[in-house]
Each structure stands twice: as structure tokens, then as C-alpha cells.
Design brief:
Chains A, B: It catalyses: 5-amino-1-(5-phospho-beta-D-ribosyl)imidazole + hydrogencarbonate + ATP = 5-carboxyamino-1-(5-phospho-D-ribosyl)imidazole + ADP + phosphate + 2 H(+). The structure is a homodimer. In chain A, helix 1 crosses helix 9 (293-301), helix 2 runs parallel beside helix 3 and helix 3 (90-98) runs antiparallel to helix 4 (107-114). Chain A is of the alpha+beta class. Chain A folds into three domains: 18-103, Rossmann fold (3-Layer(aba) Sandwich); 132-186, Dna Ligase, domain 1 (2-Layer Sandwich); 190-388, ATP-grasp fold, B domain (D-amino Acid Aminotransferase, Chain A, domain 1), CATH 3.30.470. The first copy, chain A, has helices at 26-35, 68-76, 90-98, 107-114, 116-125, 139-143, 234-251, 285-288, 293-301, 335-339, 370-383; strands at residues 19-22, 42-46, 59-62, 80-83, 102-103, 133-136, 151-155, 165-168, 182-186, 190-200, 206-208, 212-216, 223-228, 255-264, 269-275, 315-321, 328-329, 331-333, 344-348, 353-354, 359-366, 385-387. The termini of chain A are far apart. In chain A, 26% of the residues lie in helices and 28% in strands.
């Protein structure tokens, strides 16, 4: 007896339907928040007993996401399985998929994306424009390609939130390269970094969110803030949207695909990397768009019609990163002051402990006027600090 | 160590802050959803072990809201106490308040509003325009006032969701009057029913939401659907906003006050009744307004700056009531179909069992064009049915 009539998974019933998420961090938290509207029952597993989702899921259990048995057993206990982080045991997901469990995004997509080398090779194989690269096995290997420098050396697996990327400007920097399988990627002289989030359901229905522009922290390779829509001309926007769509189609993904791109100074758009899940570049959609990326994720993996991605107003997103020099219980300076600013929406992740540059929350800023939007962003960045004392 | 700097309750810390809600129904659910943004820890008590909030609160316990000891003990376990239903033990709340606990809305406000007689008397005492009325002790008493008919007889206490109101057209109907303390209220020849939700914090800062227009179900005295903003002229709107503001000031409420009003055919605005909490007439604000009524509730009771109540677009709200003739596990016919309509947002309350006319969910509908908005509302009403089979 389906709770929803129609093509929706008929095993989903009012009393027995259950969805599992591998990972209970901030992306899981925002997925949970969106799931409340449709009374979806969400079960979460995360290695951290103090993960942001711990109090809000139908059930929460502590467990490794990379251990075969743990992931396999968790997957068996739910009807539909999804992720909020790609560092998970894909072998277990494949076993579950073979047994007929709905696992979205598909394990094969996660496997490719987990490895930056496979990911780049995938772009090349599918004629998706991307910066030139060489797959490397170790540091010694990198030393062989000095004519390819300046380049970035990216760790093949397990890079995360700015870790796992090194700029190798010249032969002198080769010592900074990772002594593990990786990708040596031609440094792109880019004007902007863009991102487009794509949703795609089982039927192959596909929708993109408006193109956004990300500004990275100069040292920490983390999104510092973001503007939506990106300030680019129509032709560039069409290119970015088209590449994002083609990338999602190439993967055949069911779920969300966040496509990060470079806009080069020559006006070329290149795929940088992708994530098969909700993404930092889409937090603002909760407030600024008709459908948020989180709701779109549920629509996509439950094979429901995708939602309208139109924005109500221009928006920006400021990541709240732990202040340098502060490690310990978190406190949010300036929280109340920014609450009195119109069109300013803080979101705190509930992480007990702050660390330098840890993602502790974000602030969405909206305004119909772009100049005022920029002023508000500057004010938010100046006022809020995540500290410990 | 306050989690938020400023005037915010300094006992609220990252690890120890806790907020309690008396009641875990759909209003509690939407309060929980809004609380996720600020990582508020919410504890809930409800007499129903299967209440909609059971899986989503930091803690959920089953217990009576009208039992002194239960409410008192629950209140002692939290830092700030609020309600999502006014049928609670006010003696316990007053004891907690005397001991210095933050209880918002204030127990005195709840006490007045719990009793429709006291409520009407309050309006009269504060020169708030309201339909003429007589306080009655019992049915016999009603029979004495036949010259006052046609009128509505309202049960003084414990009326809820359309129960506790009887139309007494003439002396022949007196048998329908309640044989308990109540209010005999002059039937108002109204053109429309309006509502304004007011937020007010400890500082006395006050903000109103735009005036909405409610259409009641002809038989069941339940909001069937709602349009925001109300189609009224500016002078009437000013009157409604002004009366709502004065009513909230008269109560000195900290929290939300939903003020339901009649617009008479003569263009007069009269207060009908009020609720000291989030209200059915504000569900659409989750999607349609910069700040939702639920976020505004948190801002008000935590003494934070109130949020901008501006609407992004005209909106409507359709209550999803259990279909007549269906009692049992709920199923939502037409859910998927309406998800494919742009600007249509269903919200399901997660009640396991549907009953005729039970509030099972609602659908927010938005459109920049009022005619299209009406068409979408008609389509939603025609397509969705909450059934059991």
C-alpha cells in the first residue's frame, strides 16, 4: 500500500518506508530538514557519535562508513540508501544494489568520483572539457613531468575540504607532491570558479540550478563565499549549464551532481571536479530558490517529478569557518547582530567543537539589489566569528 | 558561556541550552523544522506516543499536558518553555514562571485565551472591537437570551478545530447550546474572515505578518483554504493590522499572537478570537515569506531581533483534511501529481491514522499571478485526497 500514489516506489508505505543516509554531517542535517515536509523517515549512520544529525533522525547509529559489513548491514535495514559524503564503502553498496536495493547515487558513480584520477579520465573519455592532466603513481612520478608545471597535484583518493591539493609551481616544489596515486593537473589561469548543481531522477528527467560563482579562501582551498547567479554573460552561462547537464547525463546519475567548473581568462569553461550529492555551492537554495537542492535530492532519488529551480532573488552564501587559533566548544560571535539584518539567514551546523577553518555553519544573504547584496556580505563577514572561549 | 553573544538568554550554551514545547503535533513539527537552522535543542512532550514530532525532537516523551506534575516536571528540565497548543496546565506554568523559568507565551496570556468568555471580556475591557456577546453559564442561561439570536454559542473551554461552536438561529435551536459555561456571540454578517499573525519579543519589538483571508469549510468550521495577501482595500488592511497590533500589545504577549477577525459587510473589522502560538493561517509563510511564523516564534521567545515578514509572492494554503468515510492508515492520493505543479508545496504531518476532517497536512501554493494562483488552488483541491485503504 503506497503512501503516495503513482510511480513512487511502491514499497514506501506509511509505516514501513525508510531511507538511510551514509553520513550525518551538515549536508545530512539539511537533507533531514527538507525531509520533514513529506514525512520521510530517515535513518543515519556516521562515525562521529556527536555528528550534527544525531538528535534529528528517526534513528541514528554510530558506525564506520568505510567498513564493508557496517555499510552492508545498515543498507539492508532501509528501503532506499543514499549518501551525504562520497568516502563510503562502495563494495558494500554494489552488493546491496545487486540484491535489488535502491542505492542512489549509483555505486558505480560514487566509485568513479571517489578517485580523482578516474574522475578526470571519465571527463576525458566523455569529451567533457577539462584541464589537461597526467595520472601519477607517486612523488617520483610527479618529478618526471616538470615540463608540465605549473600544475596542481591532487591526491587520488580521500582528499576532503581543501586537503589533498598541492600547487607545484616548479621542480623545486616537487617535494610537496603526494607520494601516492594522484593527478597532476595543468594549472588553469581562471577568471572565475563556477558551479552548477544538476538533479536527475530514474526517469532521466533532469533539471539544473542557476550557475553560481564561488570565491575560494586564498590559502585553505575552501569556498569562502558564493554569489548566485554568477556574474557572467549569457553565452558563458549557456556553456556552463550545458557542460553540467552533459556531465550528469554522462554519469547517468540518479540524485544530485554538483559540477564545479573553471571559467578561463579566454572564456572557456572547463569541468574541475564533481560531487554526487548536495554541495556547499547550493546551501543558499534553501532560502533563495523555489526548490532547494535538498528537496531536489529527495525528488531525484525517490523518482518524483523534479522541482522548479528558479531563484526568487539574487543571493550570496558565506561559509562560517572556525576562526584561526580557536579550538574547543563553539561560540558564534555576532550571531544576534546579523539576525537583525534583513535578508540574512544564518545556519549553524551544531558541531560541538570548532577548529581553525572547520565548516561550522553558513549564512545566506539575499537582496534584489546586487550592490546592497555585496555590502551585506561584507558586513556579515566582518561581524560573525566562530570562536571558542 | 553564551552560544550567541548579546542579549540572548545567557544560560543558553552550546551544550546545556534546551527548549521545551508542550505539544508535539504539526505546529511543533514546523517549529522543530525551523529550529534546525540555529541548532536549537528541542524537547517535546505530548499525550500521544505517535505524535508527529516523536522522531525529530532532541527528546520526546509521552505525557499529559493538563496534569500539573507532568507539566511542572517537564518545565523544570528545560531552560525555556513554550507551547504549540493552549490546552495545558497553566497552574504549573505559573509556578515555573514564579521560580524564574522563562515561559513564553506568558501563563497569564494562555489562561485568558483558554477561556473564550475571558477572552471576549478581555477584548471588551481593552476596547478592541468585537462582536457583541453575553457570557452564559449553561443551556438554560442561553434560553433566556432569545432576543439576542441569531448567535453563535461557543463553549468556554476546550473547543478545538471546529468543535465547541454551535449556531443558534432561533429559540428552536437552544437545545444545541452547550450545557456548560460559554459565550453567546452575536452572529456577524461578515464579508470575509481575516487573520494577522503578530510576533512580539521581550523588548516589546513587534512585527505583523501580511493580512490573510481565510475560507472556512461550510460545515466543519475549519480553515479550508487561505489567500495571502487578503483581497481587501488599503484602509481595511490598515484597520486589520492596527487591531492585531493593539491586541498583541494589550496582552503584552512574548511570542506569536494569531488574531482572527471578521470583516463585516459594513466594512468594520472585529476581533473574533486569538491564539497565542503559530497558527494554521500562517503555514504558507514557510515558503512564501522572508521569515516564517515558526522562525518568528523562536526569535520572539528567545528575545532575538524579529525577522522581516515580507512575502516574496502571493500565496494560498489548502488544508489537507481526512476524506469523509475514511478512517485508518493514511494514504495521500494525488501527491505526486501536485509535486509536478510549479509553486506547489505539500507538507504532510506524519499522523499515522486519518479520520474524516482530521488535519493531515497542507499544501502551499504560490504564483505571481492571482488568477493562476486560484486555478492552481482549484487543481490541488481536486487532485489530493487523504484516504485510507
Amino acid at each position: 500500500m503506497p503512501i503516495f500514489a503513482g510511480r513512487f516506489n511502491t514499497r514506501m508505505t506509511a509505516t514501513t518506508s525508510s531511507i538511510g543516509i551514509l553520513g550525518g554531517g551538515q549536508l545530512g542535517l539539511m537533507l533531514l530538514q527538507a525531509a520533514i515536509d513529506w514525512n520521510l523517515r530517515i535513518h543515519i549512520i556516521d562515525p562521529d557519535a556527536e555528528a550534527p544529525c544525531r538528535h534529528l533522525a528517526t534513528s541514528f547509529r554510530q558506525g564506520s562508513l568505510t567498513d564493508y559489513d557496517t555499510v552492508y548491514q545498515f543498507g539492508q535495514s532501509v528501503d532506499v540508501l543514499t549518501i551525504e559524503i562520497e568516502k563510503v564503502n562502495v563494495d558494500a553498496l554494489e552488493a546491496l544494489e545487486r540484491e535489488g536495493k535502491k542505492v542512489y547515487p549509483q555505486p558505480a558513480v560514487i566509485r568513479t568520483i571517489q578517485d580523482k584520477g578516474l574522475q578526470k579520465q571519465f571527463f576525458r573519455n566523455h569529451n567533457l572539457p577539462t584541464a589537461d592532466f597526467i595520472l601519477t603513481d607517486n612523488r617520483e612520478d610527479v618529478a618526471r613531468y616538470t615540463e608540465f608545471l605549473p600544475a596542481f597535484h591532487k591526491l587520488g583518493r580521500d582528499g576532503y575540504d581543501g586537503r589533498g591539493v598541492q600547487r607545484i609551481a616548479s621542480a623545486d616544489d616537487v617535494g610537496k607532491a603526494f607520494d601516492a596515486p594522484g593527478v597532476l593537473e595543468k594549472a588553469v589561469d581562471f577568471a572565475k570558479e563556477l558551479a552548477v548543481i544538476v538533479g536527475r531522477n530514474e526517469q532521466g528527467e533532469l533539471m539544473t540550478f542557476p550557475t553560481v560563482e564561488m570565491v575560494f579562501h586564498p590559502e585553505h582551498n575552501l569556498v569562502e563565499y558564493l554569489f548566485a547567479p554568477a556574474e557572467i554573460n549569457e553565452a558563458i552561462d549557456r556553456q556552463a549549464q550545458d557542460i553540467a547537464r552533459r556531465t550528469a547525463e554522462a554519469f547517468g546519475i540518479v540524485g544530485l551532481l554538483a559540477v564545479e567548473m573553471f571559467l578561463t581568462k579566454d572564456g572557456e569553461v572547463l569541468v574541475n571536479e564533481v560531487a554526487p550529492r548536495p554541495h556547499n555551492s547550493g546551501h543558499h537554495t534553501i532560502r533563495a530558490n523555489v526548490t532547494s537542492q535538498y528537496e531536489q535530492h529527495w525528488r531525484a532519488i525517490l523518482n518524483l517529478p523534479l522541482g522548479d529551480t528558479t531563484a526568487y532573488q539574487p543571493a550570496a552564501m558565506v561559509n562560517l569557518l572556525g576562526a584561526p587559533g580557536h579550538t574547543g566548544p563553539a561560540r558564534y560571535e555576532g550571531f544576534e547582530q546579523i539576525l537583525s539584518m534583513p535578508g540574512v539567514f544564518p545556519f549553524l551546523y551544531g558541531k560541538a567543537v570548532t577548529k581553525p577553518f572547520r565548516k561550522m555553519g553558513h549564512v545566506t544573504v539575499m537582496d534584489t539589489d546586487l550592490e546592497r547584496l555585496r555590502q551585506k556580505v561584507a558586513e556579515v563577514k566582518q561581524r560573525v566569528r566562530v570562536v571558542s572561549n
